[in-house]
Design goal:
With 160 residues, the protein is mostly helical. The chain has a two-stranded antiparallel ribbon with strand order 1-2. The radius of gyration is 17 Å and the shape is globular. The model has no long low-confidence stretch (mean pLDDT 92).
């Protein structure tokens, strides 16, 4: 599966080769696909699973736009990690469990950023939730790429 994904992405990279490094293109392709799936799942969860209704749990009440955020994340967390580990940052020599823990921490920070931006855009600026999700994603993706490249999947230099 990895070979097939790399063949497809690398085939489409040729016209962009002078504009950006291969790793950046792979990140955009994998991250873009995962993000598109996240937005699609968010839309489905918000509109058709939750029917735009607040979720009442025994000790917690969650607004529909926030509940949909966590529902879509349940799918896109594992797919995002696997794509990053095996397609985008496959040259990282950190142990897999270290990568997973760092990725988990990064996603935790991204959840907080998503939550904060969604609350701000929907409840303060009164932006439609799906549009707010797209705007939020733009901010979070930039932060995520830099963090993954420099921290989560970094390449450790060998000790001499």
């Amino acid at each position: 599966m990895r070979t097939l994904i790399l063949m497809v992405i690398d085939f489409f990279y040729r016209p962009f080769a002078k504009l950006m490094p291969l790793q950046t293109f792979r990140y955009l392709a994998c991250g873009g696909g995962n993000t598109a799936m996240d937005i699609f799942l968010y839309f489905i969860c918000y509109n058709f699973v939750l029917h735009q209704r607040t979720v009442y749990l025994p000790f917690l009440t969650i607004s529909a736009h926030i509940a949909a955020l966590f529902m879509s994340l349940a799918i896109t967390f594992p797919t995002g990690f696997l794509l990053s580990k095996y397609i985008v940052f496959s040259d990282s020599n950190l142990r897999g469990r270290v990568q997973l823990m760092r990725y988990f921490m990064l996603v935790g920070i991204c959840i907080c950023l998503n939550y904060g931006f969604m609350k701000l855009f929907v409840e303060q600026f009164h932006i439609y939730p799906t549009i707010a999700k797209i705007l939020t994603t733009i901010f979070v993706v930039g932060f995520s790429y830099l963090t993954q490249k420099k921290f989560t999947f970094k390449v450790k230099m060998p000790v001499e």
